[in-house]
Amino acid sequence: MKRQGSLDIVDPARIAKLGSFSVMRGRLAIMWKFAWSVGATAAINPTLYLLSVGIGVGKLINAHSGSVDGVKYLTFLAPALLATAAIQNAMDETVFPVLEGFKWTKSFFAIHSTPISGKQIANGVLLAAMVRTAFSVSVYGVVVYLFGGFTSARGWLAIPIALFAGAAFGSFIMGIAASAKNDDSFFMLLSRFVMMPLFLFSGTFYQLGSMPIYLRWIGWISPLWHTTEIGRFFTYGHHVSAAMMVLHLGYLAAMFIAGIKISHRAFEKRLMK
Amino acid sequence: MHQSNNSEILINAKGLHKSYGDFTAVNGIDFQVKRGESFGFLGPNGAGKSTTMRIIAATLTRTDGELTILGKDPAVKGPEIKAHLGVVPQADNLDNALTVEENLYIYGRYFGLSKKFVRAKIEDLLEFAQLVDKRDVKVEALSGGMKRRLTIARALVSEPEILMLDEPTTGLDPQARHILWDRLFRLKEEGVTLLITTHYMDEAEQLCDRIMVMDKGSIMAEDSPTGLIKNYSTKEVLEVRFGSERNQQIAPELKQLASRIEVLPDRILLYADDGEALLHTLNEKGLHPNTSLVRRSSLEDVFLRLTGRTLVD
């Protein structure tokens, strides 16, 4: 092959437009190597949860009080699990790969020595995380549907909402992961002191109103609660006032915008250090 | 096809300066690199070579001074400059989970190159890096030398105007180093401008047309390898050992006989244009060293002369 030279074959303007997608494709190529585990997790997780908690615990609750929020326990639980799955998937693809890219394989520095900018790397990582999240949440949605978890025709709208929550939480966590100095304990701290309380105190298994007032704040700051509220509105007609709907969506949008900003800054800073 | 003009200046630095708080990593250096040249930064660890390389590669901003690469300022036009650079960092940063071929393909796509072009280019690069039979092997299973060659091949996927190599052969065994030198020599023949940092004098002598000797962020000297040796050393060097105790004692006496001497912990270097003749004189005077060796001057001697220290401590 005769050498043409980069002056003739590389077009920086094109990369400025499409670079984020090139990074996304690179990330997806790596993810594809672990496709079986992503796929299996996506299908097995909801099945196990819905069987054990939805049906098992549900039977107990339904026998005791007949319903929660006017619906069967599984119907009540499903949108919360959907949102949790979205957030968990987004986190899996925005924490570990970010620590890897900056510290372990340093592959982000390799990408950054091409015309691709730090912002585009951050965008690409998030886009790839969203591709995986969309897949996992869709599988989750199918399983919920098969368990009879959607009682409303517009129930499927809980899926894009969950995806949006994944993007909001994922971008935010990605920014923090990119700024983390001590990477070794970061993941452990995050899962024990952030993910676990959010999962338990965001009105996932019960309505947030049944918590004493001094614990409800965890739900209020948790993207999971906001997402679950919207999800329940769609899947079974849970009552959400227009004002609260704006608040829920606004909260997620604000988190998304802040997350992107923090990520962009953290990526640019760390790659130029 | 762009016209290649051999006197065209690709890199122009004036008063280039980089400091981190109180620490000065690069202390106002000036240099120029012409198209097709093979330019080396020689110096010990911490001399400021890698910092200079990263500033040129637009992945670190300078504190002060002027710098243009292909006529553009990297602090302003980073991506436009990076479009024409091939960067080989000190430590390989390949995607370990991907195969050799996938690494090349994905990297090519980061330059916005078409699938067709990258597919065809990969065949050339696999050949060049002697990795044809490893194309479907995951990077984590490759040897150090293979990873290094793959990193270099990856940097060439976009047919860069300037290939930048930061310590290309550090950590490689002698055989792997020679394979790599051979590959780099071929690139030089193709007219690719090479920028190399190294603390190996033999590497600098083998690969570079012009060398900038750096120490503590400053330029100590700049010339061709032969020019440096001519200006800063004698033609030959006589290395003698009298045993670590006697080396110090005997040094003043030896000083009278050679144009310059260097007393190292284990040996004494005597600089002279005729080493054998000097050894003869030593023996005549009854100074019989335990061991002796006459060799040609190298860049190591130049560095010792300029800084009073050896390159590899």
Topology:
The complex is a heterodimer of chains A (about 270) and B (about 325).
Chain A: H1 6-9, H2 12-32, H3 35-65, H4 73-94, H5 96-104, H6 107-112, H7 118-146, H8 158-179, H9 183-201, H10 213-221, H11 223-236, H12 242-271
Helix pairs in contact in A: 2-7, 3-4, 3-7, 4-7, 4-8, 4-11, 7-8, 7-12, 8-11, 8-12, 11-12
Chain B: E1 9-20, E2 23-34, E3 38-42, H1 49-56, E4 64-69, H2 78-82, E5 85-88, H3 100-110, H4 115-128, H5 144-155, E6 162-166, H6 174-189, E7 193-198, H7 201-207, E8 210-215, E9 218-223, H8 225-232, E10 236-241, H9 244-255, E11 260-263, E12 268-272, H10 275-284, E13 291-296, H11 299-307
Parallel strand pairs in B: 3-7, 3-8, 5-6, 6-7
Antiparallel strand pairs in B: 1-2, 1-4, 8-9, 10-12, 10-13, 11-12
Helix pairs in contact in B: 3-4, 3-5, 8-11
Task: Give me a quick take on this structure.
The complex is a heterodimer of chains A (273) and B (313). By secondary structure, chain A is mainly alpha-helical.
Overview of the molecule:
The complex is a heterodimer of chains A (273) and B (313). Chain A is an all-alpha fold and 273 residues long. Chain A contains 12 helices and no strands. Chain A has helices at residues 6-9, 12-32, 35-65, 73-94, 96-104, 107-112, 118-146, 158-179, 183-201, 213-221, 223-236, 242-271. The longest helix of chain A is centred in the first third of the chain and has 31 residues, at 35-65. The two termini of chain A are 37 Å apart. Chain B has 313 residues and is of the alpha/beta class. Chain B has 2 domains: 9-224, P-loop containing nucleotide triphosphate hydrolases (Rossmann fold), CATH 3.40.50; 234-296, Alpha-Beta Plaits, CATH 3.30.70. Chain B contains 11 helices and 13 strands. Chain B has helices at 49-56, 78-82, 100-110, 115-128, 144-155, 174-189, 201-207, 225-232, 244-255, 275-284, 299-307, and strands spanning 9-20, 23-34, 38-42, 64-69, 85-88, 162-166, 193-198, 210-215, 218-223, 236-241, 260-263, 268-272, 291-296. A 6-stranded mixed sheet of chain B has the order 5-6-7-3-8-9, sandwiched between helices. Chain B has a 4-stranded antiparallel sheet with strand order 11-12-10-13, covered by helices on one side. A 3-stranded antiparallel sheet of chain B has the order 2-1-4, covered by helices on one side. In chain B, strand 1 and strand 2 (23-34) form a beta hairpin. In chain B, helix 3 packs parallel to helix 5 and helix 8 (225-232) crosses helix 11 (299-307). Chain B is globular. The interface between A and B is large, with 38 and 41 residues.
